[in-house]
Amino acid sequence: MSSRQAIISTEYGSRYLQQLSKHWAHKFETEATPVSAKIALPLGDARLRADDGSLHIEITAHKSEDLSVLQDVVQTHIERFAFRETLEFDWQPQT
Asked: What is the CA radius of gyration of the chain?
């Protein structure tokens, strides 16, 4: 398994993680609260956590070759929900 994480500066992290969870809840297993979410996607898992000024994302791909695709899927969906602001994603290996 391969993992990456990103911390995105935004006041609306809770809103975005809730939107993402609701968007995928009809297709995938999700667990969500206003400040955290876990989404089981076919390529791997996405975990999100929101605080006052940021959205924390951790992704874990089942296969290392799928990590970039999983990252792109999660990032593009969040960017769609955040169309009113430009988010900076600085993906790093999970420590």
From this structure: 12
Whole-angstrom distance between the N-terminal and C-terminal Cα of the chain? 13
* In 1-95, alpha helices (H): 13-25, 67-81
Q: What is the tens place of the pLDDT at every residue in 22-49? A: 999 999 999 999 999 999 999 999 999 9
Largest CA distance in the chain: 34
Distance CA 81, CA 20 (A): 8
Dist. CA 4–CA 83, nearest whole Å: 23
C-alpha torsion sign, points 47, 19, 14, 72: positive
Residue for token digits 């993906």? 91
* Band (95; pLDDT cuts 50, 70, 90): low
pTM of the entire predicted model: 0.93
